[in-house]
Amino acid sequence: MNLPVSILDTPIEYVKGIGPAKGETFRKELSIHTVQDLLYCFPFRYIDRTKFHLIKDVGTDSDLVQLKGILLSLEKIKTKNNRFYVKGVLKDASGFMELVWFQGASWIEKTVRTGEEYIVFGRVSMFNGMKSMPHPEMELLSEAAVTVSRTFDPVYPSTEKMDAKGLDSRGRRKILKQLLSTLRTPDLPETLPAYVTDKLKICSRFESMQWIHFPSNEEEKTLATNRIKFEEFFYVQVRLLL
């Protein structure tokens, strides 16, 4: 008798929005092979979508920041060693900042449009004597206004090759949002005993997966984080006892 295959064991390339080429990138870059691997690759931080910085207030020693401005220009520049990088100029009410991409130049030129207002996220540094944000995450403000109805957006571990394939945090959010919308409680069966979850008021496994990726508020983020941490330590203790 053949048992039904769990959706969690589905190969990553069969997830909507991924396919064979991106699936291979997931495998090589982050060792993500299945739906379960994708779900358990958790965000390492979140963007507070309600908070924006002004360019004039951002220092080169700052943490990751979120800006909002108009992309004035975008050009492909050839270096002395015959390589190329793409430079853009972002303008907000307080000043200007360069945006720089050293990888994925062709992809940037095809997907980013001048004259549009963007939400830009990244870390600021100095490049050629100017404030610069290398490899920023960018999202059209007009699209964000429609799709973002939450306070927190997840930020995932990535690599230059993944970013070049459109698998940066923005791309991963789209994939995960669609995937999570198709999952139901039976797809993520409970792994902790009921007496434990009831006594400690721990959220369900299904809720923890939804909330760790897309929390609507600080409480959901905390509940999901606590559940996942508790489950990990719980089974470490069980293994030690065995």
- How many helical stretches? 9
> Roughly how many Å apart are the termini?
31 Å
Largest sheet: 7 strands, mixed
Strand order of the largest sheet: 6-7-4-3-2-5-8
Low-confidence stretches: none
- Let me know the average pLDDT: 87
The total strand number stands at: 9
What spatial form do the alpha-carbon principal axes imply? elongated
Radius of gyration: 21 Å
Question: Helix proportion of residues, in percent?
Answer: 25-40%
Structural class: alpha+beta
Order of helices and strands: HHEEEEHEEEEHEHHHHH
Strand content: 15-25%
Protein described:
A seven-stranded mixed sheet has the order 6-7-4-3-2-5-8. The chain has a two-stranded antiparallel sheet with strand order 1-9. It has helices at 19-30, 35-39, 105-111, 141-147, 160-164, 169-182, 194-200, 205-213, 218-241; strands spanning 45-48, 65-78, 84-92, 95-101, 117-122, 125-127, 130-134, 137-140, 152-155. It has 242 residues and is an alpha+beta fold. The protein has nine helices and nine strands. α8 crosses α9 (218-241). The chain starts with 18 loop residues before the first helix and ends with a helix.
